[in-house]
Write a structure and sequence with these properties.
Length: 350
């Protein structure tokens, strides 16, 4: 064996060893779940442990409805219902399961009929289930790649964002049938409803834009580019300040969009791969979480001035969150490998 061949073999071995070490570190990051880092704006209350399902569990959407927290499991397709308490942390006995397949994404509760709806992208359908019994009621075929889902109280319908189809599907809760579809002109992610204008604002991830959707007219009123925002994902609305808070997954910023001027008015750096956003209008705080596992807490000083209060290290893959307006508590879902999936609970420090 010549000296050149020996160098090649040694280089290859070191390359393999490096890859193994990287894989081991990533594996450890998923398996080992520690408490969140210290913070000045929120206090960690503990974990809500969910039933163990897949070897690798990826939790997707979280939705708070009254005293209930719904969590979707992208890995198994299950939907977990957690009974919330005013002060005590929920225990295992407070968790019930709607078991179905495949992949589960967004979940929403229709308040009048008290039925829940969950999107399933692998079968292009929305499942309807009874949250009191956690039993299936119906499966509604929809357009390709259903993901985010909302109850539009202004129009009394279920709005489904169909990613690959670049459209929205509207469902009548009374008949549990598709009423209509709306062409959006881009791949929809999260959305927010503006009660003042009765428009629904929809992020369009692939074209870095936000669209104003007139649900009643079944049409897009206008689209605006989001300069400085790459791959808009999560969204929350400040109804009083007339601002949208948009998470930009591609370049790790929170973009603030002025609903009156229809332009980007501010931008704040956040943790990597931001996916979800929540806004507490009473405390004037915005929360973002992303795939890098960082919870960013931002204070709204004025509608166009913001300061970062905390950048809290959580757990790799902790990318979705929900806010409880009655207690101001925050829930963040964790990805897990080999161990039980869980949701971290935070209370605000004022």
């Amino acid at each position: 064996m010549g000296p050149t061949s020996g160098k090649v073999i040694r280089g290859t071995l070191w390359g393999v060893i490096t890859l193994v070490l990287i894989a081991a570190v990533l594996l450890l990051r998923l398996v080992w779940i520690s408490e969140p880092g210290k913070a000045v704006s929120v206090q960690f209350q503990g974990f809500v442990l969910l039933p163990k399902g897949a070897l690798l569990t990826v939790l997707d959407y979280l939705t708070v409805s009254g005293r209930l927290l719904f969590v979707t499991d992208e890995s198994t397709g299950s939907v977990y219902k957690v009974d919330l308490h005013q002060k005590a942390l929920p225990q295992s006995r407070d968790v019930s399961i709607f078991s179905s397949e495949p992949v589960a994404h967004g979940v929403v509760l229709e308040p009048q009929l008290r039925l829940a709806y969950v999107t399933r992208s692998k079968v292009n359908a929305v499942d309807v289930f009874d949250p009191s019994t956690m039993k299936a009621i119906a499966r509604i075929p929809v357009a390709e790649d259903p993901d985010a889902i909302f109850f539009d109280s202004l129009h009394g319908l279920i709005y489904v964002a169909n990613g690959d189809a670049h459209q929205a599907t509207l469902i009548d809760p009374g008949t549990r049938r598709v009423m209509s579809t709306i062409a959006l002109g881009g791949k929809p992610e999260f959305a927010a409803i503006d009660p003042q204008t009765k428009l629904l604002y929809q992020n369009l991830r692939d074209i870095n834009a936000v669209a104003a959707v007139d649900v009643a007219a079944r049409s897009v009123v206008q689209r605006w580019d989001l300069p400085g925002c790459t791959e808009p994902t999560g969204m929350a609305i400040d109804e009083v300040g007339r601002r949208l808070f948009i998470a930009c997954a591609g370049n790790a910023v929170l973009t603030i969009f002025d609903l009156n001027a229809h332009r980007v008015s501010a931008s704040v750096p956040v943790g990597g791969g931001p996916d979800s956003v929540a806004f507490d209008p009473e405390l004037h705080r915005i929360y973002t979480a992303g795939k890098a596992g960082v919870l960013t807490v931002i204070r709204q000083v004025t509608p166009d001035a913001y300061e970062v209060l905390d950048s809290i290290k959580l757990h790799y893959g902790a990318h979705t969150l929900a806010f409880d307006p009655s207690t101001h508590n925050l829930f963040v879902a964790y990805a897990s490998l080999l161990v039980r999936p869980r949701v971290a609970v935070f209370a605000p420090l004022r």
